[in-house]
Structure prediction request, 950 residues.
Amino acid sequence: MTTALTAEEYRELFAAALPQATDADTILPDLHTLFTPDSHRAALYVDSTVVRGGRGVGKTFWYRSLLDDTLRRVAAEEYGIERLRRLIVHQGYGASIQPELYPGPGVLRQLTEEGVRPYDLWHAVLLSALGQPELRDREWHDRAAWVRANPGAAERTIQRADRQAQEEGVIHLVLFDALEHLHRVRSQADRLVGGILELALAMRLGTRNIRCKVFIRPDMFDGALLHFPDASKLTANAAALTWSRANLYGLLFHYLGNMDNEYAARFRRISGDWQTEIDGQRYTPPALLRGDERFQGEHFTRIAGPYMGANYRKGNTYTWLPNHLMDGVEQVSPRSFLSALDKAVAETRGKYAGHEFAIHHEGIRRGVQTASETRVREVGEDMPWVQLAVRPLVGKQVPIDQSAVLELWQEAKLSDELRREAERYGTEDEETVVRSGPRYPGDPESLIEELMSLGVMRRRRDGRIDLPDVYRIAFNIGRKGGVLRVVD
Amino acid sequence: MTLSSDPVRFDDARPRAMAVAREVAAEGLDVLLVRDVTGRFTLLIDDRERAVPVGREDAWGRHLAEELRQYVGDRPVVLASGLFSAEDLLRSARAFPDPVPRPRGGVGSVRLLDNTVVGEDWARVSAPAPSADGSLTHRTALYGFKGGVGRTTATAVLARHLADQGHIVLVVDLDLESPGVGPLLAGEAHMPFHGLVDHLVESAVDNADGLDLVAMTGYTPASGRGEIWVAPARGRQRAEGVPYSYVDKLNRVYADTPGAHFGDRLENSVRACERAVERDGESGRRPDVVLLDSRAGIHDIAAVAISRLCDLALLFGADNRQTWSGYGDLFAAWHASGQARAIREKLRMVASMVPDSPQQPLRTYLDSFREHSWEAFSILYDDDAPEPDTGELIPGAFFPTPEDDSAPHYPIPILFEPGLVGLDADGAPGWQERAFVQAAYQEFLAKTTRLITAIPEGGGER
Prediction:
C-alpha cells in the first residue's frame, strides 16, 4: 500500500517525530535520532583533531554518539569509515561530572589558581585514561604534579600504550567536549583549551595510535590558538560541523521515517527505498531524500505546498525556512530548524486546520518567530553575556553605527554588568553553572568582534552593525527601512 | 538648522515646504503643495468647507517665503475658493499623500503635486488590469539603468525559452533611441512595415487603424506550440521614393497630445501590438507573455514601462558604483512619491555579466552584489520599528533578509559570456542553442519564467 499521507496524518507524524522546542536541550543520540549528514563525515575521521561548530550544531551529539558502541558502529557503517570500529574511546572532558576521568569546573578553578600548567593537567587526564598506576585514586592536583615530576615515566606509558594499540590494531581516541564549561574567566578557559590542543598536537606528531578529538566553538578555538606555538598545524585539518539546506531537510525526513508508528511506515513507503538496520530499529533514508535538494523540495512541497503565498513570487517553502534562520555566519542550527517546523505544524493545526497541506505558509512564518526565540534562549543558556550585550539595543533599529552601539553599552554600563555576571556565577554552584564569559569584557570593540564570530552580529559593507533576523526578531530590534508603517 | 545666510538649495526645498504644509494642515485645513517645473512651491489651501481666518493667508505666505527663499512660487499661497479649477488640482490622481504618518483628528491632509517636464510617470505605479474576459497578459519589462548589460540579448533568449514552454510571446522594442531586439529576434522573418513609433505618431492624428505592427518570427519552438512575435520600434521602407524617416517620427512621439499623456499613448500602442497578434496570428489569441525591452537610464519610456505597463520589472545591473547610485536614485524617487509599496511588488534584480573565474568566483561576486542590492532596496522596504509603547515589533513588516531568495533585491544571475559580446545574430544562426549560451542563462531562464507566469497579487485568473 502506498497511499499518500493526508494533511492531518502528516501533522500527527510531525508532532510525534519532532523534538518539542522546550526540551531541545535533552535530545540524546539514539538509533532513531542519529542522522549522518555527508558533510559531517570529516568530523569523524580519527585524524580530525579539531571539530569546530557553533551552538546547537551537534558537537555534543557526536561526542555522545562516539562514546556509544552501537552508535559508533552505525556511523562506521553509514559513513564507510572502518577505523571507527577499532577505537577505544575515552572521555577527556565533557559536561557531565566524572571526577575520576577528568577534573570538573570547581577543581579546574582551583588548579588554575594554583598555577598548574594546563598541559600537565591534560597530560594527567590522558595518562589516567591509559591506566598509569601512579595516578590512581589521587586528587587532580597530585596527578598533575606527578606528571610534571616524572616526564620519563609518562613518556614510557604513552609509548607503551601506543605500541600495544598498534599491535592490537586499535586506536585510543580521547574526546573533549563542553569546553565552554571549563572556566568562567575567559582567558583561563582559553589557556585550558590551549593545553588540550597542545596535547592533541603532541599525540598526533609523536604517536600513531593515540588521538584526541576536540569539539569546540570556533571563537574558542581561535582564542586558544593564541596560547601555544605550532597551533597552525591544527588548523590545517580542522573539520567543521555545518548544516547545508539539504542536510537540514535530510534530518527532518530521517526523523519522520524513524518513528514507530503507521504514519512513519507509510511515509517510508512513499518516499523511496529506505534501508532497515539493527533488527528494524533504525531506518536509513534513501540518498535522494538525504541530500538531493530537488527531490527533497518535491517532498516538502507535498507537506507544505510549493509557495509562501499565492505563487512563486512569494517564495518557495523549501528555501524560505532555512534562509530565514541563518545567523550572521550563514549557519542554521538544526534545532532552530526543527523547532520552527514544530511550531509551523502547531500553528497550522490551530488556525488553518482545513488547509490542503499539512503546513500553512503562515505557520512557517510563525515558526521562524519561535525559532528565533529558541535560538536566543539557547545562546542565553550557553553564553548569558551575549544577552547582556544585545539587550541595550532592544527597541533600536539596525543597521546601526558602531559608535552608537558603544554608546548604548556605555549607558547600560555593560562592562560592570559583565563583571557582575561573572562574579554571580562564582558564588553559585560552580560545578554546574560555570560558563565562559566574553574574552575581553572591558573592551567593547573586541566584544563586537566576538559577537560577530558567534554569528550574533554581522558587519555591513559600510561598516555598520547588523543583526540577523534569527536574533533580531526575538530581541525586538527593528530594521531601518524607508517605508513608514501606516498609522490608521 | 541652516544659517540664514546659506542659500536654500533644491534638495532643501521640499522637506521645508512639507514642514510648512504640515503646520498649515495642523490648523485643520487640507493642503496641496504644488511644485512647478522649476522646482518652486505654492501652497494650495482648500478653504471651500472652512474659511481661512483673517490674516492667516498672508502669514503662511510670509512663512513659506522665508523658509524657501528662491524656491517659493510667485504666489506663495492660493486659496481654492479663488481658483476656477481647484477641483481638478485637488483631486488630481498625480498628487500623492505625505509619506509621514499624520496625527489623527482635527488635522487636515497634506498632499504633493509635482509638475515636471519628464519622468513624472515614475511616480504613478499601477499594474495592468485583466481584460473583461478575465484573461491576463503577463507583461514583463526588462530594464537596465546602464546600457550594455546584455539586456536585449537576454530578452531574445528569454522569448525563445518561453515559446518553448508553449507560450505565445510578444517582444516589444521600447528602446526607441537605439532599436535592437527586433532584428535580433526576427532574423530572417519579415519585419513589419510599421513600428511602435509609427503607431505613436499615427495615433496622435487618429490615423492608427490598419498599421501592421507585429511580425511572427520564424522560430519553431521545441514544444511545437509556442510562438514568438516581434513589435519592433522602427518599421521599414514601404515603397521606392517614400523614405522611412525614423528620426522625424521619434522627434514627435514624446509630446503629450490633447487628452492623452505620453504614458497613456505608449500604453495604447503596446495594447495595439497585443491586439495585432490576436488579429494576425493563426491562433487568434492575444499573447500570454509580453516582454518589453525598455531603454536604459532615467527616461519617460522606462518610467512608463516599469511603473505602469508591466506587472514584473527585471532590473539588470552589474555590481558597480554606477549601477547602485543609479538604482539608488530611482528607488529614492519612488520612495519620495509614496510608491514604494506598490513598486516593490513588481521589481526583481538581475545580475548580468556575472564573472566566474578563479580570480573572481561567482559566489563572491554574487554575495557582494546581493549586499549592495539589499542596501539599495532598503529604502523601498518597511521601516520595522519597535512600537514606542510596548517596545515590540509589529508583525508582518516587509523587510526581507539579504538571504531571502524571493525578495526583490535577490539577484538572478546571468553568467558573463565573452562569446556573446557584440554578437551578430544574423551571422550566427542557432547561437541560442550553443552550450555556453545555455549554461550562462540556465538559472535566469528557470527563475524568470516562474516569476513571469505567476499571477500577480490581485490579478485575474488565466
Q: What stands out?
A: The radius of gyration of chain B is 25 Å.
